[in-house]
Amino acid sequence: MSCFPVRLQEVRQAVSVCLRSLTVWAVRLTGSKYGCGGGGCGACTVMLSRYDPQTKHIHHFSVNACLMPVCQLHGAAVTTVEGIGSTKTRLHPVQERIAKAHGSQCGFCTPGMVMSIYTLLRNKPQPTMEEIRETLGGNLCRCTGYRPIIEGYRTFCEVISSFISGFHHAVGESLEPFCVHESDSNQIMGKLQTSGKEKLLPLDPTQELIFPPELIRMAESEERATQTFRGERMTWISPISLDELLQLKSQHPQAPVVMGNTNLGLDIKFKGVIHPIIISGFRVRELFEVTEKPEGVCIGAGSSLSTVRSVLEKCVCSLPAEHTQTLAALLEQLSHVAGEQIRNVATLGGNIASAYPNSDLNPVLAAGNADHLCVIPEGKREVPLDKDFFVGFGKTVLKPDEIVLSVFIPVSRKGEVVRAFRHAPRKENALATVNAGLRVWFEEGSNVVKEMSVYYGGVGPCTVSAERTVQQVIGRPWNEATLSDAYRALVDEVTLGASAPGGKVMFRRSLTLSLLFRFYLHVLQHLKDTVRPPSVTCRRFSDADSDVPSGQSEQDPVGRAVQHQAALSHATGEAVYCDDFPRTQGELFLSVVTSARAHARITHIDVSRALSMPGVVDVFTADDIPGKKFRSFTGIDEEILAQGEVTCVGQMVCAVVADTKPHAKLASAAVKVHYEDLPDRIFTVEVAVEKRSFFLPQREIQRGDVTKAFQEADHVYEEIRLGGQEHFYMETQSMLVIPLGEEKEMKVYASTQHPTMVQEAVAETLGIPSSRVSCHVKRIGGAFGGKVTKTSILASITALAAWRSERPVRCVLDRGEDMLITGARHPVLGKYKVGFMSDGRITAADVRYYANAGHTPDESVLKILLHMDNAYNILNLCSQSAACKTNLPSNTAFRGFGVPQTLMVIENMVNDVAMVLGRPAEEIREKNMYKETSLTHYKMEFDPENLLRCWEECKERSELDRRRLDVARFNQQNRWKKRGIAVIPIKYGIGFAEGFLNQAAALVHIYKDGSVLVSHGGTEMGQGIHTKVQQVASRELDVPLSMIHISETSTSSVPNTCPSAASFGTDANGMAVKDACQTLYKRLEPIRKQDPNGTWQSWVQLGHDLYMDWVKQEGRPYAYFTYAACCSEVELDCLTGEYRTVRTDLVADIGQSINPSIDIGQIEGAFMQGLGLYTMEELKFSPSGVLYTRGPGQYKIPAVCDVPLQFNVYLLSGSHNPHAIYSSKGIGEPTLFLGSSVFFALKEAVAAARSDAGLSGPFTLHSPATPERACVACSTCFTQMIPQAETETTQPWALELP
């Protein structure tokens, strides 16, 4: 059953249980996924339905199952993804269309996407494109880049034009609408429409699931009574009347009143906050009453933000425009608050009472003179929301026993202007960095200010009123002179210390000025009565297909856009991931204990309290490991559990095993580790270089005579810092280990890219042969390089628990744990000296790379030096790289494995040359490109023909020459908005430089009924490897795809597998499947001849003939190169640093694509991940080495709102590659770097702003180019007003990495 009613008398221990736990463990519905546990990713989205007996109406709304308390669900119907359709019965159109649009890759986020849109369609069967986009705002995807998801769901819109005109840009009003021709419209439809829309399942609202009649009868006949639920540590009380609520609050004044659980739930789950009594006001009808009056609207404090939005929209439509200023300002903010799922449950009263310092609503309510009605048993009082209401962080003037009953929002008066502004790390579904509510009231018929309010959020412990600033304005005319005095007063009034929580001190202070200036401009427009409506633009997506040769059999699927083989299973929730396996008899759960110190000696581990807690079975340390206590990566040992000393915060110290996950978590928190701090902590590469703290080997490569070349050229010294990047795979590290109880065998189910490494690690840890361990991988919910090394260590710890307990043990990391333990992409400091001639030719470059490796080497010997030339033939090169040993968590492989960092340094260097010479950057790039068959700096020969073809086609398709003139014209005409455009090439080597990693194997079974079972060594993590392998097998065996099945990746079927990484998975495993009928001996024959004196062990470890000799500084480390070029244009708001990617054109050479739909999905997903790397995503560490950014609330990856307004992807035609299967090319990693085209377009826009400020030449803009960095680099008059913070005597809030 997957649409089920909830009657709480049937639920036991419901106090601490969330809805997702109920669906997974009690009802066995695993479609809703655990992605973050905090309502920030949308993977757990389900639909909640309630019947209102007063209105006789059924309300449907989406919620995050990970936050919704089961205690709150009495009388509700819950619909999960399993309930709307399945492959076994009938698909729902929502499920079918995301699958057919290729909108699912790893599939972990897909059920959440499906349920968000399903709920929308239940409420509005023909939505607008804006409603679809807004609905998906609370759902994150790390794989697809969102384009195919939007494309699939666009088909529900009534007409195509709603798609064309439905996307409002977020930067300003200067973007011109793009024209979409009919042919482009057909391309937008892509593969989804090739057979006509009539072939899609129709949406028929009459066929939807009905609301359970028993719940209607219960709601209309049930005698309402207070509900009480008692758990192990908390009691939940749900009264039915206001009087009873007040009485409970009087008896328990410290007990929180919970409504949506979006604040309290996070505190309980992530901060360990315990409340013995929790009072729910959800069933108190008085908290939901709405009353409209001539003087304003009174909204019940329990009303959800979605309800508030509906009420305000109705009022704005019905009232005269002059009365809607405050209401419209609130509406503007509500459209950006969280995602739809949170807005559906978070309440207006909760927003006010929680008094969060960067609440988006409180500054507007305060500025608009709102007040609220508070009640206590003795009576009622009206409390104004003004400067005296907020008294500190999370504190207000409300008494402990007071209840916020309602909020009154007055209408605006004639001559009054109210406006709200906000800036956030991401345009939507992100807490504001700084926000503002501003109001001004003019003397009748004049521009003299009669009254004014200015409130800010995000610049103090609570909402701040700028009273002294306001006094500079009242009684004076609204002009520049008045505002100039206000700016000076504001600088003195709103201050932040250098160590203020949240950091970004200079930026946040400058935003207070910028937002006041924007209000000034808005009011001027209002006074002139010439306010323009916002313009709109469109997204245009053009798909591409590889040319299928004429005469190719219709049954041959190679080269065709075949749907992902598991897409429908993803969309229906039937796809099984590691944590979806049913619990087995006696299964235990493991939780790890991590270090709280960056560098310390462990003096004692006290586990006594943990062992005495309910459900705890075992606590073990490194001393309990029977085999090897370490794993060896790159020749250096890494401890499985810390022994005697810890060297970073987050290092695993011991593990707790208990009967349930909550019990294990509580017990792990009860383990007390005693430390003795050690000196000389190292966090940054500068300190590491100073102390010579490096991991070996340090690499060096040289070409030509650099010293001589520098003597004959002009040169520039510069550096660029690149921050790290969290993998943020949607499925966290997950594993289940089952001891078979015979011959010491272990069966490991893990979400890993490298099953063989897990197999070896478990065997070595337990001291048993590898043949006794089998590792199984059905699919992975995203990985990107982050599920290799740490996964093997976590699997070893989990296997040890299973070994000791002789019971199955499951380990699934919470998102915060995952981010703390597993590391990220390496932050890099790049320093360079570049020599060049006056015509732009680069004659010499000396580059130094310093990567922050963390406390262990992990995988830190990167590809940096091998890709440092990118597309440029620089005849004199000298470069060195070093992996710096620091006291931060170990960084590891991430899509591209060092290449995105090295290319960023080189492209920034080329950009600096262009700035010095005052020429377009693409001119300098083109002048220095490889032009003919050449040798790289490591003496590998290649032909750059396709590189040049990509470059020229990209310039042509992007209309670069015309648009560059348009950009220059735009920048001349606009002072506070600037545009930039940049074209970036890439030459990316495919394969592992270590030859043995390029091997693969496959096992093919053909059964008597003609069906085929294929096993290979690659793991399916969203890149479509299983689908492509099926296509290969279909061609080779000449059988339909439907006859071919891939069950899982298993070390018991295919031994000695290599990691699915380096964009080489399909090349290796596809070829292995193709050659499956050849004998092992025949395949090893060439290697035997090369090494006749070798052993069997040495022969089977050799693979593809790739190598790199670092002594001779030469080799063939790659099988071939993938080429691409990308042009991006951005529009930058110089006042806030916010930007919008106006258009992106990308041309990629991927040979003859095996499956163009999958390859285009990989290209788009990688580009969006690169956009995040270079412009958005920031890892923040405290001065003591503690990771601040441990979830989607603090760490922002790109969302739907960040997709370029116009995104065109083209596959280079006529390309062939003799080095890979069917002349295809690896594409998973290369195009990630092309996200840097947005960075360099931003840098060009910043340069235009600096030119207006009288600044020219190269300037520093580190990566990621966040709004903070872009705004500060623009050097506007407002940023120049802010004095530099005193950092010599005050410790900053966060470390400046790398």
TrEMBL record:
Residues 229-414 form the FAD-binding PCMH-type domain. This is FAD-binding PCMH-type domain-containing protein. It holds the Pfam family Fer2_2. PROSITE patterns: 2FE2S_FER_1, FAD_PCMH, MOLYBDOPTERIN_EUK. FAD binds at residues 257-264, 360, 422. Keywords: 2Fe-2S, FAD, Flavoprotein, Iron, Iron-sulfur, Metal-binding, Molybdenum, NAD, Oxidoreductase. Substrate binds at residue 897. Transmembrane segments: none annotated. [2Fe-2S] cluster 2 binds at residues 106, 109, 141, 143. The keyword Secreted does not apply.
